[in-house]
Amino acid sequence: QVQLVESGGGSVQTGGSLRLSCAVPDTTFSHNCMGWFRQDPGKEREWVATIQTMTGDTYFPDSVKGRLTISRDMNTLYLRIDNVKPEDTAMYYCSAVRWQSCPNPTPGDVDYWGQGTQVTVSS
Description:
- By secondary structure, this protein is mainly beta.
- Helices cover 3% and strands 48% of the residues.
- It contains one helix and eleven strands, in the order βββαββββββββ.
- The strands form two sheets. Strands 2, 4, 5, 6, 9, 10 and 11 form a seven-stranded mixed β-sheet that branches. The chain has a four-stranded antiparallel β-sheet with strand order 1-3-8-7, with no helix packed on it.
- Strand 4 (33-39) and strand 5 form a beta hairpin.
- The chain is globular, with a radius of gyration of 13 Å.
- It starts with a strand and ends with a strand.
- The model has no long low-confidence stretch (mean pLDDT 94).
């Protein structure tokens, strides 16, 4: 069982920035695609960013493009959120995604999930 461990969540004011981290075992980065999803209670889990680990290519849905940055180094995956908005409030999940779905994955394309880290945006 692969363990992905997120950290960095917390409370942030509207307009601020936040960086989430995910500790990733060596073997999981060989998965070729890693990403972040988020979920607010009562809503479906939604994809917010993916990165192809071999090429560094990144993908975002239009709803967050320009405000989110995904990156990796060594054994850590990052998600930076700039100009945070109240709608960014959610539990954020690190994930290992099947590489074929990297540009636009659904939760069904994820092989491994982290336990999540909560982000709460206040006005």
